[in-house]
Amino acid sequence: xDRLFASWSxxxxxxxxxHRAVKNGLEIACLANTxxxxxxxxxxxxxxAAVLQTQAEALGIPxxxxxxxxxxxxxxxxxxxxxxxxxxxxxGVFGDIxxxxxxxxxDAVCTETDMTPYYPLWEEDQRVLIEEFLDxxxxxxxxxxxxxxxxxxxLGRVVDRDFLADLTALGRxxxxxxxxxxxxxxxxxxxxxxxxxxxxxxQAVTRGDHHFLDIGHVSLRAKEPVxx
Length: 228
Fold this sequence. Notes:
The chain is an alpha/beta fold. It folds into two domains: about 5-120, Rossmann fold; about 140-220, putative n-type atp pyrophosphatase, domain 2 (Alpha-Beta Complex). The protein is about 30% helix and about 25% strand. The strands form three sheets. It has a five-stranded parallel sheet with strand order 3-2-1-4-5, sandwiched between helices. The protein has a four-stranded antiparallel sheet with strand order 7-6-10-9, with no helix packed on it. Helix 4 (about 100-110) links the parallel strand 4 (about 90-95) and strand 5 (about 115-120). The longest helix has 14 residues, at about 75-85.
């Protein structure tokens, strides 16, 4: 069986992509995440690197966190893939849905590193995808929002059907999965998880064009029993 990495932000789309991959019999050997130069926060969603490490522990999947800079992101991403390829990992699972320029970028770096990319969610209806995510039992919270689209009051909210209804009620063009960057999430529980995450000491902070949920502490808790 091929061993794959999962391109990992900690959010719902990459998590659903991994969920589908696992259901299809693929082996996820590790999560691959890019962080800022000092290694403290993820590049994609601004989540503390330590939070993602705890999330990986809850999943029972090792995580590789590659520091990157503004001007050498591609070079360092490629270096990470070369390192994974040397460990016998032959491809990657990506949670992209419909942004062609990013898919083209992924295809290029995978070709360069002899990796096979897999896109389990590609060009599927976003509303159907978010419904599948919720129906599967995953729980995620909003950890970043574009400040010209959503206010900080959305941070920390569980992304459920009430959340989606509130997005619709705003009367703005907001994609159901936030694929245009309107909001980003952190998955805290679900069928892939051996333990659930508990977030405490959270507060809203603003950096650049986004409001972020600053997570003071994350801990692991036993999963609640499934009720018939």
